Amino acid sequence: MSDEIYMARALELAYRGRFTTAPNPNVGCVLVRDDSIVGEGYHQYRGGLHAEAHALLMAGEKARGATAYITLEPCTYYGCTPSCCDALILSGIIRVVVSMKDPNPRVSGKGIHRLQQAGLHVSEGLMALEAEKINCGFLKRMRKGLPWIQLKLGASLDGKTAIANGESQWITSKESRSDVQNLRAQSSAILTTSSTVIMDNPELTVRYKELDSSALELYPVERFRQPIRVIIDNKNRITPQYRIIDQPGETWLVRTKYNQLDWPNNVKKLDVKYDENHLNLYSMFLELGYKEINVILVESGAKFAGALLNAQLVDELIVYLAPKLIGDTGRSLCEIPPLKRLKDSLAFNFNHICRIGPDIKLILTPHIVVPNITSVDE
User: Which of 28, 89, 117, 246 could be cross-linked to 14 through a Cys-Cys bond (beta carbons 3.0 to 4.6 Å apart)?
Assistant: First the structure.
């Protein structure tokens, strides 16, 4: 069998960790000797064994003389677990195929060099694009200090998110809302604004029973972590009475001051930069990256969605389109400044299109450069 087939299996294994590994990367490993898989594994959760360790435990003595297919360069340092490079060398592995180098400064080529020094044959770059997709959040944070930012919107066919009086439940289908649970579960944090909290009083949690069957088979409910809820509250309008506060996991408030209300222990203030009382978005995302947030899912109203798009901060735009028409009085998908020229419009590439129940799910990435706006009012 070819290297590509074994690396594809390693990538498939790595993908299984998408709900629980953050802030660590998703990594898969397959050990092959005499054209047979003798061991395989993936990183399951932070603090647990790395993918290489799982595969070596499964292989035992059969690892000697084998080839290791690993989706990310193995680590060289002792963190929560021992060095994977040392474990591979001691096992008697003779060849290592790495999909991509780890941009983490603690590794960043050191793992490949360590293996080569020990006499192992190492190749790098096989199916690197696929490996990038699995760890887009971790890789962006390591390279730029910023999380991967997904903006999720639900709308009618004519691009409306609510009728004129603000009613928006439910434009999209039950199936689309269940699919959003998978997005939330894969996110390190969910970002919203106080305006959305006041209007909808949401919980913004992962509803475990609505996850897809493959996720439910892999992990028991106690293994799932709730993403951190981040609320932009420039005017200090949120109080402990909102449902989002009384939920499992942490809530972080982005605000200028922290009043003396009776906040539960899971509520914290996130200190970020303000420019003349305007929130500096770039500074906020840098701070979230510093706090090891890999992926942020934004669930907000049209005003904040437009601000993010104009600030060139959205990595993926995810839109659920329902087969409904609301009309001109409805609320628009996002608020962006009026254009004087059509060529200045925000353009995107379609990365993925699929049916979710009666709806259509679109995943898009920005196509052109737009003007920078890095501060925002709520």
Answer: 28
